[in-house]
Amino acid sequence: MTTEKISWSPSTQLAPVPAVLLGCGKSKGYDANLITVAWCGIINSEPPMLSVSIRKERYSHTIISDTGEFSCNVPLAEHAREVDYCGVVSGRKINKFKTCNFTALEGEKIKAPTIAECPLTLECKVAKIIELGTHDLFLADIVNVRVSKDFIDGNGHFNFDKKGLLAYCHGAYYNLGEKIGTFGFSVKK
Amino acid sequence: MTTEKISWSPSTQLAPVPAVLLGCGKSKGYDANLITVAWCGIINSEPPMLSVSIRKERYSHTIISDTGEFSCNVPLAEHAREVDYCGVVSGRKINKFKTCNFTALEGEKIKAPTIAECPLTLECKVAKIIELGTHDLFLADIVNVRVSKDFIDGNGHFNFDKKGLLAYCHGAYYNLGEKIGTFGFSVKK
Q1: Domains contained in chain B, CATH given
Q2: Paired residues of B147 in beta bridges
Q3: A172 contacts in B (CB within 8 Å)?
Q4: B155 close contact with A: CB closer than 8 A
Q5: Which of B4, B43, B130 sits opposite A53 (nearest CB)?
Q6: 0.90 cut: is pTM over it?
Q7: For residue A1, what pLDDT band results from cuts at 50, 70 and 90?
Q8: What's the pLDDT at B60?
Q9: Which of A60, A100, A153, B134 could be joined to A159 by an S-S link, Cβ 3.0–4.6 Å?
């Protein structure tokens, strides 16, 4: 293996990134809708916050801007087809919950719908919207976390090892593989 | 499998997220330094931008705030120990490039060092810093991308399948597993 490198023009090559399903609507006259975003990340630990970037022309951009709420649903690898589908079709004409066979659960702290079949849901309220270019960046407070009982282990921790989560890398969906170590393992004796 | 859920207090449970090594320094009197961040994501496609969140008390926060530059180096799964190490020790007293046996390459469009051993590097210039709480959010322009020749396939695309990338989930490091599908596969005939 060499370490020789070449330059590419600037692009969004970070990987892996999450591919999550945002649930929105169910208030202000909007039906429940879903959109997949890969431009999503944690931005603050305390208070817990995440950001999502959404193209201005997407229907969910309108809904989330107007309602100020969304759910961030973390899918399993087995949901890859639905995740892909919700990223490429528009909710203006299609009910994605129905097409994907997802069950819409009411959020606890938000009116936006959450997905029953996803093991983990972060309920979010928009704190700020920043225009960047193709996308607007939504900074949001995580106001509640919902976890499927099936994914909590005997110690009360979230454990998804029996069913892998989904990752997105350079235009493809991947299953997570083997666990290599836990935070701090490099300095443990 | 049930869909029964319980609520947890708000926390940063998004997963998987990238665990990347930021290179900084090599200008304004700072030595080359490294810090691992998992609170990192793409925020805009055109112009290409990413964000990283860094705790105010970290040495790299000082360096990046002062120099306005950093490299975002995407590690392989085999770098998990170094990635972990650069997240838990401070560069104020330790030369992490040396300890990790990483080769510092000068950036092309930035003065901040890049890591030769990482297959992919995004060279970044800070556009804006937003204070959020424990962390400050750095919005940055991706001004150049460097790719190891070893990871470019015959079609000129980035291909890391022969050596997996690293993902971070709920306090543990994972290798990426099998490819499930490519973007748009759900609607292809």
Answers
A1: 17-175 (2.30.110.10)
A2: A6, B120
A3: 179-183
A4: no
A5: B43
A6: yes
A7: low
A8: 97
A9: A153
